[in-house]
Amino acid sequence: MKRVALNRNDRRIMYLFSTWLTFAVIFSMSFTVPPDDPPVSAGQDATICEGQNYPLAEASAPKSARLLWTTSGTGSFNKSAILNPTYKPSTKDAVAGSVTLTLKVTGPEGQPDTICSMVLTIIRSPRVYAGGGDAIRPGESYMLSYSTAENHTELTWSTSGTGFFNDFHDLHPTYTPSAEDIRFGSVTLTLTAKGKDNCPLAVSEMVLNIN
Predict the structure, then answer these.
(1) What are the pLDDT digits (tens) for 91-110?
(2) 96: closest CA among 78, 70, 74, 80?
């Protein structure tokens, strides 16, 4: 076998080629292509007001996986086998104060299921009752002793007339009609309750006749 002698330029070219090839191999081994599928997640814990539904918009899972949502409560999903359904809490869920929503992800055959959960807290809505209609004689004051309220942070009484309450933030204040209220013959007294965490207000009215 005949040997071929390499001159200086040939050896330089071989050296550069060998160096480039080594760099290419190392680069290809260290470079990682990011996965196409997102990680499994049921989303962050969340809080809603009683009477509201919750869209599970933050949930994520591989596109090809089979999905199933379940709840620790008695509410319902509009579609339990899709990635981002909407959950409708039941009355029992609201009374309990929270539910755990769980996403089960079944991947390719031979791989274990992945389970992820989030906690949905439900703030009870305020409830108020101003009392039934009642009547007093001209010159009398009226104590609102039949009013009730729950799940509130603040109460406020108001009147359709021009009389006054001795404490319009108290649940059972006393209302004193004005001369104009007496001439008109009746006033509507309104009790408004402010809910927790900016949940909707609750309002109730009663009519006080003056005759």
Answers:
(1) 999 999 999 999 999 988 77
(2) 74
- The confidence score (pLDDT) of residue 192 equals 98
Q: Where are the domains of the chain?
A: 46-123, 127-210
pLDDT tens per residue across span 26-42:
444 443 434 567 899 99
Between CA 171 and CA 31 the distance in angstroms is 69
The bridge status of strand 134-136 relative to strand 202-210 is parallel
127-210 has CATH 2.60.40.10 classification:
yes
Return the structure tokens found at 185. Answer: 């013959």
Q: Are strands 186-194 and 154-159 parallel, antiparallel or unpaired?
A: antiparallel
Pick from 157, 149, 160: nearest CA to 188: 160
CATH number of 46-123: 2.60.40
- What is the three-class DSSP state of 79? coil
